């Protein structure tokens, strides 16, 4: 009994819903028929058209909303990449966007994650120069965020300023998958130092390399600015016998390798009192780019660039205030949203409204204004097409009526007269079967009157004979 009762309740509920739907559809259909002068079929077509446009617009409105959570692939937790990502997270949180930070081994792993569509990551810090042989078509750059100087610390009583002098030595070139190793191998190869030769190329992280260098287990260590802390720099430059490599050929390297820049570590900049370093040191440096997938939401692009400006625009030893971020294009194309941001800043709505409100207003303008531009001509064209079809049907009967009238002008035999009368009856029958909306009632009645008029003439011709 209970199961049967439930089925009865569901059946009644479904029936009520169906009846309500039919009643509502009938009322809307009647409204369309009376407003636009449509037939029931044309009114139903108009209702379907409007419904589809509204459903698509509503779907796109919610689909185009910027996500409230994005993921950045940074670097290890002691790196500058990770610390900058934490600053980004704080800035984005002000606008209600959560930034999830995913630690990594460095630039190469960040790039591999961004390339892999199955990996859930949106943006990442990538050192220029690591994209050789990679497919970057689906990636865009939001701009360069900072210089990434290469430091080479070496143990020697004499100064070394040409990389080929490290041939046959023990060199720590960074861990596998890091930008340090990629750049180190490229520079050493230009000096005929390659893996498998007389030079020992050892994979070590910065802490391990620093310890090995101090203990005399290696002769030189390559370190990038994102992972080599200022503490490491100060410590090594104060140790007797440890020197910082001076790239006297920096200009030549930057000519041969397009993504490199020449920068200078000024004399005394690390310690004025002890004059460290004791002379200007030439360094070469790639830049760090903020890389995103090409489908990154434009509103999030603006937020990220706003965060990048706040984090990276300060003056430092190697850069002037406001120098970064900047749209330097190397292995990745600058996104169109980033180009617009660098030229004119944030868009009007995001400049003056809170992020959530600007996003909503922007989506209304982007989605519903085009919807109206589709609906208005569409709703005008449906009645126009319907009126054209109705006129065509009426004119077709008029053509048949004209043919009958022209045939009446010749001498008719009784058989021909009967045939014309039969034609008139068929025309009248077709007209009577036509479903005509109220807006075409006058034309329908006029057509019937003309049929009667032709019939009277036909009958009068028969009587006169």
Overall pLDDT confidence? 84
**Treating each run of at least 4 consecutive H or I residues as one helix, how many helices?**
14
User: SSE string, helix = H, strand = E?
Assistant: HHEHEHEEEEHEHEHEHEEEHHHHHH
| Overall body shape | rod-shaped
Number of strands: 12
Termini Cα gap: 84 Å
Sheet with most strands: 5 strands, mixed
Strand content: 5-15%
- Taking pLDDT < 50 over at least 5 consecutive residues as the criterion, the unreliable ranges are none
Biggest sheet strand order reads: 2-1-3-12-4
Report the C-alpha radius of gyration, rounded: 40 Å
Describe this structure in words.
- The model has no long low-confidence stretch (mean pLDDT 84).
- The protein has 465 residues and is of the alpha/beta class.
- It has helices spanning 2-36, 40-63, 80-93, 107-115, 179-189, 206-214, 230-238, 250-256, 298-312, 336-344, 348-352, 355-408, 414-433, 441-464, and strands at 69-73, 98-102, 123-127, 139-147, 150-155, 170-172, 200-202, 220-224, 242-244, 261-265, 281-285, 287-293.
- It has a domain at 23-58 and 363-464.
What features would you highlight for this structure?
rod-shaped; five-stranded mixed β-sheet; 465 residues; 13% strand; alpha/beta
Write a short abstract of this structure.
With 465 residues, this protein is of the alpha/beta class. It is built from 14 helices and 12 strands.
Q: Layout of SSEs?
A:
Layout: H1 2-36, H2 40-63, E1 69-73, H3 80-93, E2 98-102, H4 107-115, E3 123-127, E4 139-147, E5 150-155, E6 170-172, H5 179-189, E7 200-202, H6 206-214, E8 220-224, H7 230-238, E9 242-244, H8 250-256, E10 261-265, E11 281-285, E12 287-293, H9 298-312, H10 336-344, H11 348-352, H12 355-408, H13 414-433, H14 441-464
Helix pairs in contact: 1-2, 2-12, 3-9, 12-13, 12-14, 13-14
